[in-house]
Amino acid sequence: MMAKPKKTKTAAAWSLVIMGAGFAASLPFQGVPVGKLLVGSFEAGLVGGLADWFAVTALFRHPLGIPIPHTALLPKNRDKMTEGLVSAVENNLLNKDSITEKIAGFKAAEIVLDTLGRELHSDGIKTMIDTLCKRILAGLPLEQIAPMVAKEIKSQAGAFDLGPILERAAVQVTERGYDAQALDYALKQAEEWLVQPETVMFLGESGMKAISGIQMNGLMQFAMNAFMGYLNEDRLGSIIQGYLFDRVEDMKREGSALRYKVLNMLRTQAMRLAVSEAVQDGLNGWKNNLLDGWNAEETVLNKLTEMRDKALVAMEDGRYVDTYALTAIEKVLADLRADEALMTGMNTKIVEGVTTLLEKNHSKIGNLVRENVDKMDNASLISLIEDKVGQDLQWIRINGAVTGFIIGVVLTALRMVLE
Length: 419
Description:
Blueprint: H1 3-26, H2 33-60, H3 73-76, H4 78-93, H5 96-104, H6 108-119, H7 123-138, H8 142-159, H9 163-175, H10 178-194, H11 197-212, H12 218-230, H13 233-252, H14 257-275, H15 277-292, H16 296-314, H17 320-338, H18 340-375, H19 378-418
Helix pairs in contact: 1-2, 1-19, 2-19, 4-18, 5-18, 6-17, 8-16, 9-14, 10-13, 11-13, 13-14
């Protein structure tokens, strides 16, 4: 950064040396017209170079260390220079109106989303997403979440009426043929029971007891006694067994009138039970009693903890980031990008925020410039300025010497002509 000013300063010094050497070398020849012209030209160039050297040096320091009045202008006017720089920055270069105007059309939201979209698949972003997701999941306050979830579950379950479900279940039993399947199962069990040897004796004994209990008068009682003398438990049991077995076989056959009557009775009774207010109230009461005795908070907390632990184990290798997380984030970014109203609102909020921040802190820009200038001593400040504008200032010296030389040529030639 300092190379060019130093080279230019060296060139400026050499311009003075050349003018001085030329002036000294031409003095012995001033008796001739060419010598006189050279003396006048080099003399004017030397004077011009020295004058500009004095002017440039006087900006930064005392020439030759001599405290000549009105020299070392920058160190003496440091405060004025600082305030002028602060004023220029605040009121001209970075004034509030110009900054506000520039950022008014700034599409900050689009830039942020586009940047996220480009960088989303980089390793650094993936690692950040993985770490963030795991920490969020591991840090979930399940002890606080569980009571809220349990309360909502109990509230929803308590308000849920089981009556319509019971009615729908009764309809489904018929529509899906569950009643026929239940009847077939019952008939199969009855058939297996009827063919067992002990069933005959059981039916016979039960039939004999039932007939013995019948009370009749006169001839009917005589006939009944004669009939009872003919029967015994084995015979009566076989008769009843045969009759029941025939009825079971009949009900197993599709299209049987008896099967149809039994199924129709089952369906009718099932629907009556389903729409019965007493049954529905009893079922809802049973449900509410279960809810009252259920420690929902503990159950929910255990289940949430179990789910969280399983999720953390599944997330351990980080493959979920590419499989699920990035896909979800890309969809969210695309949805946001497509929502023009939302993007406009986000941009407006960002501009308003930056403008408000600028209005509150605009004076700090000038203070920052002032603080940074005040941190530098005179030597550092002068070195900084010379580094930035020193090259042009040294060219003033070179131009002064060259311009003086040219003017010396013109004035000397004019004087020689007039003489």
